[in-house]
């Protein structure tokens, strides 16, 4: 097949800027072949190279005594004691999900699961964080249905419980939805598998499903803004098969027990190219591939297509040659392809052969660790002036609550998570909808808690405080279950980094996230950066999603109960009535004014430690975030089927979003003991009401719990069902 000529238009179509192409010419001393151009495009795009974000990612805290493996591998690894480790990561599949919602979301789930079991861990939990445009937008309904069905379709068939996540709607996502997928797995701490190749002349083995043309150029597509040519990008979306992935996982985990694996890498973004280059680069070796040996499901595939295909359910492995027969038998048993497609070589070369011809011969190290790195100019975001609270109209507090729980942003997400299998594997302790998800660590007394959090309107107003708040809210969500937060993964979703104001949002958020992770001892151990989330020049809200994991070492220390009749409602933390950027302001008055609430990290840590130290006195606990005390009290009451009375009817007191706060439910005698403990610890704790009856009452404003519950649980289905 005649390869196209390398023209400026072709170079631009591959997402390479003229100065980057000039650097390619300097590196190889000649014009690249078409396949070589595709390889450089795949490895140097934003999605794979992090060329706009590397400088700032290096500033994040990534180590600690609990960290076994930080960023740079397929997933992060954290020690949970008893020679066990939790392996986890969050990744985005935003652009593919907007183009083809079902397959985009499904393959996002499949990719993050592979990242986890590639490390030798069996997946035990999944979450997803979804952001869509306004309800009235003509594409939103299709996206919601397609994405939710894709997440459920893949995860349910694979057999991993979905234990948490979030769903939001805002006009800023009209042209670019966000689909962030999280997965966690368990592994033996001394049996983690890494991707760095070692040894010269070792076989490079292709494992799993066959290669097709789906997803060719997907990583490059994910590193560019959308425009009116979006429908033409549909062929770049991968197609997933969860049943093949399930077999691939079982085969890989079985193979790892044989001692055959030197290194292993999932074929994700940029497929065979990225997996081979990363394995070679991390091991300081070259890689030679013979593409005629690659299992193919379509005829006449070119070297370019095979190298850039993002067909799913595939792995690349460096094998101990003496174990070849044993390894092959494992994959034949699971009815999966096993093919030796190359070998490691001592030279710094990425050599690609196809049909007895050399299709690419490049210095391998220049493709990965020597990819371009930019120090993008940025403009710091100037926070808006504080909100003038006198401009917020007075309304009946119950009407404010109804406006929140009757909106798609704050109603129950039952319609979503009931489509996910939350109980498969039979270790789920707490399902979605009640705060952080909790999973039992099988055959032990331990439990793991999972949450994902961010408030994009805070980040837009004040990236530093918004970044802090995302981590602090994750810390509180874990703490409210009795868990000790261990570590985090981040999914940093932003617009075009070439715009200084967008880069300023990114830099500020990183600064806030780093400060909070350090102060709260929650290092970042893995993550993903998703940039260019823009359509026709309009960017999404800055959305740095934080996924976090905590541990409950003893079930006696868990706080997983519910409020009940007669319980006292206690508020831990100080209320100043911060309404700037609040849910009340946005949902009731359609205003996004004022600064984000300030986050005092010392206070966050002190209050979290108080909750964990006094777990025995607490029957139910939730953190306060969006919607403040009013929404937290309603959700706690509604989950338990009991009414709640709060003494105040002041709007700022009820709906203010001051940080560092928890709502606690307990018996009267336990409340007295908590007050004494709080006095000794120097933390503010006050009685704010009581759980009783069948009415929700804020001061003199009230409504039947049944009426509010019907609104809360029925809204999402009424809009999207």
What does this structure look like?
The chain is of the alpha+beta class. The protein has two domains: 1-59 and 194-371, PurM-like C-terminal domain (Phosphoribosyl-aminoimidazole Synthetase, Chain A, domain 2, Alpha-Beta Complex); 395-490 and 512-521 and 544-720, Phosphoribosyl-aminoimidazole Synthetase, Chain A, domain 2 (Alpha-Beta Complex). α17 (463-479) packs parallel to α18. The longest helix is centred in the C-terminal third of the chain and has 20 residues, at 500-519. The two termini are 49 Å apart. The mean pLDDT is 95.
Structural key phrases:
28 strands; Phosphoribosyl-aminoimidazole Synthetase, Chain A, domain 2; 23% strand; seven-stranded mixed beta sheet; single chain; alpha+beta; 2 domains; 721 residues
């Amino acid at each position: 097949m005649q390869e196209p000529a390398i023209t400026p238009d072709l170079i631009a179509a591959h997402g390479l800027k003229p100065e980057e192409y000039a650097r390619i010419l300097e590196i190889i001393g000649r014009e690249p072949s078409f396949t070589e151009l595709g390889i450089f495009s795949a490895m140097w795009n934003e999605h794979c190279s992090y060329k706009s974000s590397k400088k700032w990612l290096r500033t994040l805290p990534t180590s600690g005594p609990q960290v076994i493996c930080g960023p740079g591998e397929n997933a992060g690894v954290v020690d949970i004691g008893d020679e066990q480790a939790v392996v986890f990561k969050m990744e985005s599949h935003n652009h593919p999900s907007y183009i083809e919602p079902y397959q985009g979301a499904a393959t996002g789930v499949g990719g993050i699961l592979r990242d986890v079991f590639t490390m030798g861990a069996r997946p035990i939990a999944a979450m997803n964080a979804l952001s869509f445009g306004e309800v009235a937008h003509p594409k939103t309904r299709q996206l919601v249905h397609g994405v939710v069905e894709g997440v459920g379709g893949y995860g349910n068939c694979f057999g991993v419980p979905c234990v948490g996540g979030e769903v939001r709607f805002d006009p800023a996502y009209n042209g670019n939805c966000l689909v962030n997928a999280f997965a966690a797995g368990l592994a033996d701490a001394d049996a983690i598998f890494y991707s760095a190749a070692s040894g010269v002349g070792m076989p490079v083995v292709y494992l799993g499903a066959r290669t097709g043309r789906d997803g060719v150029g997907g990583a490059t597509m994910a590193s560019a803004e959308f425009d009116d040519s979006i429908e033409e990008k549909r062929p770049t979306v991968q197609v997933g098969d969860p049943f093949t992935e399930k077999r691939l996982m079982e085969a890989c985990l079985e193979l790892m027990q044989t001692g055959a694996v030197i290194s292993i890498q999932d074929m994700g973004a940029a497929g065979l190219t990225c997996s081979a280059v990363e394995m070679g680069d991390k091991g300081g070796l070259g890689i030679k591939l013979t593409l005629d040996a690659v299992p193919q499901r379509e005829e006449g595939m070119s070297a370019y297509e095979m190298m850039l295909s993002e067909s799913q359910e595939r792995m690349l492995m460096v094998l101990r040659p003496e174990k070849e027969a044993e390894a092959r038998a494992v994959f034949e048993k699971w009815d999966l392809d096993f093919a030796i497609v190359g070998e490691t070589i001592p030279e710094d070369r990425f050599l690609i052969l196809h049909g007895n011809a050399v299709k690419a011969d490049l210095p391998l190290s220049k493709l990965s660790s020597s990819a371009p790195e930019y120090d993008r100019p940025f403009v710091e975001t100037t926070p808006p002036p504080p909100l003038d609270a006198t401009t917020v109209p007075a309304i009946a507090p119950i009407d404010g609550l109804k406006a929140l729980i009757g909106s798609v942003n704050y109603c129950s997400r039952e319609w979503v998570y009931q489509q996910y299998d939350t109980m498969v594997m039979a270790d789920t302790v707490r399902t979605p909808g009640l705060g952080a998800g909790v999973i039992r660590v099988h055959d032990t007394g331990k439990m793991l808690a999972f949450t994902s959090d961010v408030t994009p309107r805070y980040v837009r107003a004040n990236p530093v405080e918004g970044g802090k708040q995302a981590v602090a809210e994750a810390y509180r969500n874990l703490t409210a279950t009795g868990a000790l937060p261990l570590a985090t993964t981040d999914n940093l979703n932003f617009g075009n980094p070439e715009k200084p104001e967008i880069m300023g949002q990114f830099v500020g958020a990183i600064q806030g996230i780093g400060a909070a992770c350090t102060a709260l001892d929650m290092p970042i151990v893995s993550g993903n950066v998703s940039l260019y989330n823009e359509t026709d020049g309009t960017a999404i809200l800055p959305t740095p999603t934080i996924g976090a994991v905590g541990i409950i070492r003893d079930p006696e220390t868990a706080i997983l109960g519910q409020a009940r009749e007669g319980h006292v409602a206690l508020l831990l933390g100080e209320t100043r009535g911060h309404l700037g950027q609040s849910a009340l302001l946005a949902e009731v008055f359609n205003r996004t004014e004022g600064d984000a609430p300030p986050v005092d990290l010392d206070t966050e840590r002190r209050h979290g430690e108080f909750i964990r130290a006094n777990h025995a006195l607490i029957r139910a606990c939730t953190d306060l975030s969006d919607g403040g005390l009013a929404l937290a009290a309603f959700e706690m009451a509604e989950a338990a089927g009991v009414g709640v009375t709060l003494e105040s009817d002041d709007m700022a007191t009820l709906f203010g979003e001051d940080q560092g706060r928890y709502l606690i439910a307990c018996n009267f005698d336990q409340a007295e003991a908590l007050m004494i403990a709080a006095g000794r610890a120097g933390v503010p704790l006050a009685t704010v009401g009581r759980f009783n009856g069948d009415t929700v009452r804020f001061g003199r404003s009230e409504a039947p719990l049944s009426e509010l519950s019907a609104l809360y649980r029925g809204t999402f289905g009424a809009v999207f069902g």
